[in-house]
Amino acid sequence: MKKISKLERGMTYKILLLVGFVIILLIGIGAAYIMMKSSSTSTTTSITPTTSFSSTSTSVNNNFYLLVFTQKGIVQAINPFSQTSSFLGFQHVVNISVNVPQQIYYWDELLNGRMFNASYIVIPVNNGTVYIVNPTTMKVVGNLSVGKSIGFIGVAYSPNEEYVAIADGPSGAVEVINLQNLQVIWKDTFVSPTGKTYYPCDVRWTPNGDYLIVPLRFNDSVDLIYASNGSVAKVLVTSLGSQPYMVSPNEQGTMVAVEYAGNNSVGFYSLPSLQYLGMVQMPSGVVPQRGAFTPNGQYYLEAPSNKDEIVVISTSNFQIVNTISLPSINPAGLASIGITPGGSYAYVIIHGSVSSGGMIVLINLQTLSIAYEVPLTTAPAFVLPVSVSTATYLVDNVLLPPITGLHC
Predict the structure, then answer these.
(1) How many other C-beta atoms lie within 10 A of the C-beta of residue 148?
(2) Domain of 118: which CATH number?
(3) What is the pLDDT of residues 29-47, one digit of tens each?
(4) Is 4 a residue whose pLDDT tops 90?
(5) Which of 15, 51, 128, 206 places its Cα 20 to 30 Å from the Cα of 236?
(6) Alpha-carbon span 362 to 349, nearest angstrom
(7) Residue 328: which domain range?
(8) Measured between alpha carbons, how far is 112 from 250 in angstroms, rounded to an integer?
(9) Which candidate, 79, 172, 73, places its Cα nearest to that of 407?
(10) Biggest CA pair distance of the chain
(11) How confident is the model over 171-228, as pLDDT tens digits?
């Protein structure tokens, strides 16, 4: 056998080392190539944190018209999606003079997302009176006297629209009316031991119809009342001087928002326990008045009494997350806000004035931006969403054709 010299062994070792290095290098290059190839055939998604106001619903419901009641007693049927500013028709329901302040309306509310389908339209007038109007003929068929003084008065329809609750601030009266026979189910008066009104500015039904929510402005309290008999189920005692004066429940019936006149804030409480959840202070100079929860309850849209804007409040952390600027109308301030049937829009009522007019604005609830604007030649008081067939019937058989000047 041939003996291997030291020199040969050294050369063999170097050759093996070189071969090993080359093999490792080739493996590395191959792996890199495979990784590059895999990367080039895959899609990379970049996620950027943003604040989104989109809802889970993508379908839009435009299958409704609006009956707009103005402060002068005129009802107008309006297609809010029309490309023109002309009205479908109008009629003087009650001949109201501009110069008689006790005859100007306040508010009239359906539950959010509902279509008007009641036996009568109950119209509050600013002197403690409500008119009963036949919705088919638009004629006044009766009236009720709730109070006798000028001040806040309003009407809220029950979830099944078979009853209305009426609150008259100056008299302190709250009552429930059966719309089938126009009989008073119960009536109570909220006054102090000395006879001073506690001033119920508002009344709202809970979505299940079990309770009424009544803010007593000059008692610094919010009462939860059994709708069937008027007995008080629970009292939320608020801070001294806070003056709760408007309330709005969410559609789930789990939360209520309370507007405070005394400290320009909006408080949030659970239903029906009225446990405190959070408080939102309005920006400087903004006076809260009326609000509405989005259908999913994610946001609360606050309509100030002195600004042409909507303040968007998150119900997850009770912080202001956005402000929606509306067309500027003089004097500034919003009358009310509600949610349209199908939940695609919020409709905002800008009062304006009886001489220069106001506006109805639809807010797209998926984007929380203005979708449609409907200018009015007089001041709107409240709006009732109705079916297209109802509006068509009224336009064809009841309402007058729009004639420039008559509805100014």
Answers:
(1) 12
(2) 2.130.10.10
(3) 444 443 333 333 333 322 2
(4) no
(5) 128
(6) 9
(7) 65-397
(8) 8
(9) 73
(10) 131
(11) 999 999 999 999 999 999 999 999 999 999 999 999 999 999 999 999 999 999 999 9
- Alpha-carbon distance of 232 to 175, in angstroms, equals 13
Total domains in the fold of the chain: 1
Tell me the pairing of strands 74-78 and 89-92.
antiparallel
Q: Which two tokens stand for residue 160?
A: 């099944």
Among candidates 386, 345, 322, which has minimal Cα distance to 136?
386
pLDDT tens sequence across 361-373 = 999 999 999 999 9
**Which position has the token pair 């002197």?**
127
- CB 280, CB 293: distance < 8 Å: no
The band of 355, judged by pLDDT with boundaries at 50, 70 and 90, is confident
CA distance 110 to 120: 13
Instruction: Determine contact, residues 57/343, Cβ cutoff 8 Å.
Output: yes
For the record, the structure tokens of 102 come out as 């006790």
Residue 192 lies in a domain: yes
Give whole-number Cα distances, 307 to 57, 320, 323, 355, 367, in Å: 30, 16, 11, 19, 21
Token pair of 177, please? 């009316």
What is d(CA 250, CA 213) in angstroms, rounded to the nearest whole number?
Answer: 12
Domain annotation covers residue 53: no
Cα-Cα-Cα-Cα dihedral sign, residues 383, 388, 389, 391: positive
3-state DSSP assignment of residue 292: strand
Query: Is residue 120 a part of any domain in this protein?
Result: yes
- Residue 208's nearest CA partner among 179, 251, 247 is 251
Radius of gyration over every alpha carbon of the chain, rounded to an integer in angstroms: 32
Token pair, residue 289, equals: 């008045």
Which of the 8 DSSP states describes residue 253?
Answer: S
Which residue is it, tokens 């709202």? Answer: 204
In a domain, 3, yes or no: no
What pairs with residue 157 in β-bridges? 164
Q: 359 and 374 in contact (C-beta within 8 Å)? A: yes
351 vs 353: CA distance, rounded Å: 6
Tell me which amino acid residue 280 is: V
Give the per-residue pLDDT at 105: 65
